[in-house]
Design a protein that fits this description.
By secondary structure, the chain is an alpha+beta fold. The protein is built from two helices and five strands, in the order βββββαα. The chain has a single domain, classed as Roll (Nuclear Transport Factor 2, Chain: A). Helices cover 20% and strands 38% of the residues. Strands 1-2-3-4-5 form a five-stranded antiparallel beta sheet. β2 and β3 form a beta hairpin. It is flat.
């Protein structure tokens, strides 16, 4: 698992102090630790899914993004709920074997993989 820290990277008023990208098929999950204006840290989880419309030379590629903001006072409850949900799935259906082609990539590489004709848009709500 490759991890890296971004020093001084600022997105709006939120400073990114740590980032990790996890590539999983057509999706990339970004885990960004950010600081708000009061220097408090929180976790921003982003799912980015590649969408291809059309085929061949007429195909258009875009990315659909969804974000979750998780604050430290909610970490324990979130982790407990996540573990219970994963355990339920494992008990009912078992856990899948890891895929060989799916690997983790640093967030820098994942965001740099866009071609010159692609536009990356990241909107916080």
């Amino acid at each position: 698992m490759e991890e890296f820290k971004k020093k001084g990277a600022v997105e709006g008023d939120k400073e990114i102090v740590f980032s990790k990208a996890i590539k999983a098929g057509k999706r990339i999950y970004y885990l960004d630790v950010k600081k708000n204006r009061r220097d408090e840290m929180f976790l921003a989880i982003t799912e980015s899914k590649k969408i291809v419309l059309g085929e061949g030379d007429d195909s258009q590629v875009s990315f659909e993004k969804h974000k979750i903001f998780l604050y430290k006072e909610d970490f324990e409850k979130f982790m407990n709920g996540l573990q219970q949900a994963i355990q339920f799935i494992a008990d009912e259906q078992g856990l899948p074997e890891p895929h060989q082609e799916e690997k983790e990539v640093p967030a820098e590489e994942a965001s740099e993989s866009l071609s010159e004709s692609e536009i990356k848009i990241d909107i916080d709500f």
